[in-house]
Design brief:
Layout lengths: L4 E8 L3 H12 L2 E5 L2 E6 L1 H14 L6 E6 L25
Antiparallel strand pairs: 1-3, 1-4, 2-3
Helix pairs in contact: 1-2
Length: 94
């Protein structure tokens, strides 16, 4: 079994065509997300692969990207009507 970590992948892309391409690239790895912020469980090799794909899509002059590895020891905090996960190994989005 590969060692995966939870990452938040967020981007701000100015041009609609590049935005759509980035969305497709990130959703291939995402387990959940909203608009331009996605939760991705990635192995080290998958993370590098995703970054390579996004480098080919993004324009460094006007676009931005943040890939943040979350601490696995952190407990989830739910706001609003969100329900906390019942199994620590599974992230519930609903």
């Amino acid at each position: 079994m590969t060692d995966r970590a939870l990452y938040l992948v967020a981007y701000d892309i100015a041009e609609p065509r590049r935005l759509r391409r980035a969305l497709i690239a990130v959703r291939a790895y995402a387990s959940g997300g909203q608009k331009s912020v996605h939760e991705c469980y990635l192995s080290p090799s998958e993370c590098l692969e995703l970054l390579k794909k996004l480098r080919r899509i993004l324009n460094p002059a006007g676009d931005s990207l943040a890939v943040i590895r979350l601490d696995p020891r952190a407990r989830p905090r739910c706001l609003g009507i969100a329900r906390p996960p019942s199994d620590a190994r599974v992230l519930y989005i609903g």
